[in-house]
Design brief:
Layout (H helix, E strand, L loop, with lengths): L1 H14 L36 H4 L3 H13 L1 H22 L6 E10 L6 E16 L4 H67 L5 H36 L5 H5 L23 H4 L1 H22 L4 E12 L11 E10 L7 H67 L5 H35 L12 H7 L4
Antiparallel strand pairs: 1-2, 2-3, 3-4
Helix pairs in contact: 3-5, 4-5, 5-6, 5-9, 5-11, 6-11, 9-10, 10-11
Length: 478
């Protein structure tokens, strides 16, 4: 009997390779210009092909990024989401094959043959109701689950790209904090000495109370700025600790003290390429594309519900009215029960399900186009920053040199009684503000370079492992 059942199941399995109602998916044209507003140069390798270890050349930053990739909890969740999506895909793929198990049953009732009350015992192999995927409904759901799994994998890559850039930007911000703190400490020390001299001059009648109060105001301003920058440094350190996922090594933080942004190892420059590269390189764009594929596959599953559902139930084993005779040679038996169900009235449920699937596809297409437009905008912004921040920083440094000379001259003129104390205070105030602004512009330039690397898809290195989709398909029937 078992030998008779096996060919039947194989024949039924062949029927499972039915048609598919998944519509053909034509990816929309990229809703962006063919070139970026700012001219870009061609490069031998794209940003996404440059490993983050080659882009960030500072060993301390490399250590922090490695720690973040290992311990960051958001990235762990993204990895676990992949495992969950892979399991969901395997569950869906397994439904294309029949489920076979061992079953046993005992019942008591009136026999339809003799009309007498008796017992019935059965045991053997059973195949529960198995939907033969003649219209491709289960296959469509499998394709949907596969696309969702691949989208989750791309989401994990996008999370890593963002994490790497975030760690780098906060590290640069911490170095800027140290530089600003150094400027504020030196300025506060200078102003405290200045207010002492002004107080002596005021007490001796050589200076007015206005001069003294103005000097006092500038001193307290520097003190307030120092407190604000100390708070900002602590906040940045806390943010970096959260990203890294563990306590920061004290030697890394202490290595920033007394250093400037200009002392950091340089970042590698990256070519921008063409906007069309973003669709191939950006993980978030590829994630949106896979979401569009999944939504399109759901239409095939919704269409299949309008057609008959064909299922098969089978069993092969032993049956007897006496438990002691159950496994005797004469008690062998089998049964095959195909069934068909054609929906006639569903109160519009199937039609509504199809409309929902079609609307979901349109939403996914719009989100895919929005992802491309967002990527184009982010790269364009970073290119504009690269083209202008360098010029701004050069001009600001030149202005800072002029302001430093102005302060020295104002101090000399005031000491010799040529200029008023107001001129000296104005020069002090302008120099302090310009020193801080120059550091901020330099920080913006470095962070813009990091962001350009990020928005071009840099920060993810493909592992040298077997493609996940292939390995998943190989284990789907387990």
């Amino acid at each position: 009997m078992a030998n008779t059942l096996i060919p039947t199941l194989l024949a039924s399995a062949l029927l499972a390779t039915g048609c598919s109602f998944i519509p053909k998916l034509d990816k929309p044209a990229a809703p962006v210009a063919a070139n970026y507003p700012v001219a870009t140069e061609a490069g031998a390798s794209a940003a996404a092909d440059i490993p983050w270890q080659n882009f960030f050349t500072d060993p301390r930053l490399q250590q922090l990024i490695s720690m973040a990739l290992e311990n960051n909890r958001d990235l762990r969740v993204a990895v676990l989401n992949i495992e969950q999506a892979r399991a969901q895909y395997q569950i869906q793929a397994s439904r294309q094959l029949p489920e076979v198990g061992v079953g046993a049953n005992a019942s008591r009732g009136v026999s339809q043959v003799t009309g007498k009350v008796g017992n019935t015992y059965t045991a053997g192999l059973t195949m529960p109701s198995w939907e033969i995927d003649f219209w491709g409904r289960i296959g469509s759901l499998k394709e949907q689950a596969l696309a969702q799994y691949l989208a989750t994998e791309e989401g994990r890559k996008a999370a890593q790209v963002s994490l790497v850039a975030a760690v780098a930007n906060i590290w640069l911000g911490l170095q800027a904090d140290e530089e600003l703190l150094d400027i504020s400490r030196r300025t506060l020390s200078t102003r405290e000495e200045s207010i002492k001299l002004t107080k002596l001059r005021f007490d001796s009648g050589a200076a007015s109370e206005l001069d003294y109060r103005q000097a006092q105001s500038l001193t307290e301003n520097a003190r307030a700025t120092l407190a604000q920058q100390q708070r900002q440094r602590a906040l940045d350190a806390n943010a970096l600790t959260l990203l890294v996922g563990q306590t920061l090594p004290e030697e890394l933080l202490s290595s920033l003290q007394g250093k400037k942004l200009s002392d950091l190892p340089p970042l590698a420059d990256v070519p921008a390429g063409l906007p069309s590269d973003l669709m191939l390189r950006r993980p978030d764009v590829r994630q949106a594309e896979q979401a569009m594929v999944a939504a399109n596959a759901s239409i095939g599953a919704a269409r299949a519900l309008f057609f008959p559902n064909i299922s098969l139930t089978a069993s092969a084993g032993f049956a007897s009215t006496e438990l002691s005779q159950l496994f005797k040679s004469g008690s062998k038996g089998f049964s095959i029960a195909p069934s068909l169900y054609l929906p006639i009235f569903t109160a519009g449920r199937n039609q509504a399900n199809l409309k929902a699937a079609e609307a979901g596809k349109k939403i996914a297409v719009a989100q895919y186009e929005k992802a491309i437009q967002t990527a184009f905008r982010e790269v364009s912004d970073a290119l504009v920053g690269r083209a202008t921040l360098a010029s701004q920083l050069d001009a600001q440094r030149t202005q800072l040199e002029a302001e430093s000379v102005r302060f020295k001259l104002s101090d000399l003129r005031y000491t010799n009684g040529v200029a008023s104390y107001l001129d000296l205070l104005d020069a002090q105030r302008s120099l302090f503000a310009l020193q801080q602004a120059t550091v901020q512009v330099q920080l913006a330039q470095l962070q813009n370079q990091v962001n350009l690397y990020k928005v071009l898809g840099g920060g993810w290195t493909e592992p040298a492992a077997q493609p996940a989709a292939a390995s998943t398909q190989g284990t789907a029937a387990q």
